[in-house]
């Protein structure tokens, strides 16, 4: 399972199938479906049936009454997938030039989703836009968003501002730039306790060597 340039990507989620429309010819990276989004959704899909005995993620995946926000949603894959898996109070965010691609995908999948999901323009450096979302959130979702060294600090600050003290950042990750990678993990290590999901816990048909899923929680402040 790798990056595909097919204009439509179909993703089975639970009992539904998302139809994801992408435009790889656009100048905005957010109009493509990036593979870590599929890896994250299918990881959750694998463990979401909380009836599975000895499910190590049963506590994490108790989505009832939880609020979530997705950063850099692009075509909306992770947000739509997690909505279908029970994270129903979610708002999908990105920069304004990506909104047409997001809105198109929300419309195409409206029948499967049963509604038009909440979405909002959010630039990671815009404190007013962050405040307008009314944080804190129980979950911050992000996939394939670490690729520009200059924006890494803004991204980590936005994550920190948006996630609650006991909340979780769910991150689909692949190294896209060595410099951004180094800076991102330096900053995350200051703010979050970080767990990487073992590869054998990912969905076997939606996993590949370079892609990881991370579960991050705010470090507890020393009293
Ligand atoms: C590589 S794409 C990944 C898109 C989607 N998450 C996926 O996995 O398919 C990175 C996304 O981050 C968004 N992004 C980059 N810099 C941003 C910023 N400063 N504020 C908000 N979004 C940003 C881009 O617009 C783009 O949609």
TrEMBL record:
Residues spanning the membrane: none
Classification via CDD domains: AdoMet_MTases
Pfam families in the cross-refs: Methyltransf_16
Name of this protein: Uncharacterized protein
Protein's organism: Lupinus angustifolius (Narrow-leaved blue lupine)
């Amino acid at each position: 399972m790798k990056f595909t340039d097919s204009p439509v990507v179909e993703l089975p989620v639970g009992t539904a199938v998302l139809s994801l429309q992408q435009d790889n010819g656009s100048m905005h990276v957010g109009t493509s479906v990036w593979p870590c989004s599929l890896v994250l959704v299918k990881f959750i899909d694998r463990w979401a049936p909380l009836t599975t005995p000895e499910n190590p993620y049963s506590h994490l995946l108790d989505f009832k009454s939880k609020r979530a926000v997705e950063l850099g949603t692009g075509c909306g894959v992770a947000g739509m997938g997690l909505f279908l898996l029970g994270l129903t109070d979610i708002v999908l965010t990105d920069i304004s030039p990506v909104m047409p691609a997001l809105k198109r995908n929300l419309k195409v999948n409206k029948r499967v989703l049963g509604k038009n999901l909440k979405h909002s323009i959010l630039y990671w450096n815009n404190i007013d836009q962050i405040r307008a979302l009314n944080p804190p959130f129980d979950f911050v979702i992000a996939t394939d968003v670490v690729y520009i060294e200059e924006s890494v600090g803004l991204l980590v600050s936005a994550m920190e501002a948006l996630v609650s003290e006991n909340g979780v950042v769910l991150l689909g990750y692949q190294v896209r730039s060595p410099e951004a990678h180094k800076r991102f993990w330096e900053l995350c290590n200051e703010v979050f306790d970080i767990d990487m999901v073992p590869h054998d816990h990912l969905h076997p048909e939606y996993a590949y060597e370079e892609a990881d899923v991370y579960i991050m929680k705010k470090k507890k402040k020393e009293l």
